[in-house]
Design a protein that fits this description.
Nucleoside Triphosphate Pyrophosphohydrolase, nine-stranded mixed β-sheet, 27% helix, alpha+beta
């Protein structure tokens, strides 16, 4: 079942990219188990919860709102992992780390569209996401790179406008496929 979004105003940045926000929701601060949700468009596929930012909404607030709606969780918002660009869909997504502190039994998308959620070990989540949501898999790869050396390859560059981090496919192309 598709998600119906009445009165939703899409917001775009100066380059025409749709502004989105998402969270990697972890069971604990160890960041070894991540929560994925079923896609509203393809219910048998898993995705990282996230969506479009509302006008005047800050990225962190949008990310928290999206995981509450899509995954039915609340938690402690942590660091901004980066801003990920999807050239195909013209999206820029602010991705945060969130440590889950509360799990709702029933939540908006479970009731309205039957969305499911499931905990995955980070390695398993990357494998599941690489098939149909490779940009979402990049979020978790970036998380892993933050914990390990990158062999001198620059994976993240800063954008001159506002010191935000952008990760583009070109920046990961020099890395081994196990890291990309």
């Amino acid at each position: 079942m598709m998600k119906f979004k009445p009165n939703q105003t899409r917001t775009y940045d100066r380059e025409g990219f749709k502004k989105r926000a998402a969270c990697l929701c972890f069971r604990s601060e160890r960041e070894d188990e991540v929560l994925l949700v079923s896609s509203s468009r393809y219910p048998d596929q898993w995705i990282v919860p996230g969506g479009g930012m509302e006008p005047e909404e800050e990225p962190g607030g949008a990310a928290v709102r999206e995981v509450y709606e899509e995954a039915g969780v609340k938690g402690k918002l942590g660091r901004l992992l980066g801003i990920f660009e999807n050239q195909d869909r013209k999206h820029r997504t602010y991705v945060y780390v969130l440590t889950v502190t509360e799990i709702l039994e029933d939540w908006e998308d479970s009731v309205n569209i039957g969305r499911k959620r499931e905990w995955f070990k980070v390695e398993d989540a990357i494998k599941v996401l690489q098939c149909h949501k490779p940009v979402h898999a990049e979020y978790l790869e970036k998380l892993k790179l933050g914990c390990s050396p990158t062999n001198g390859n620059s994976v993240v560059s800063s954008h001159p406008d506002n010191n935000s981090l952008y990760v583009t496919p070109a920046q990961t192309s020099g890395l081994p496929s196990t890291v990309r």
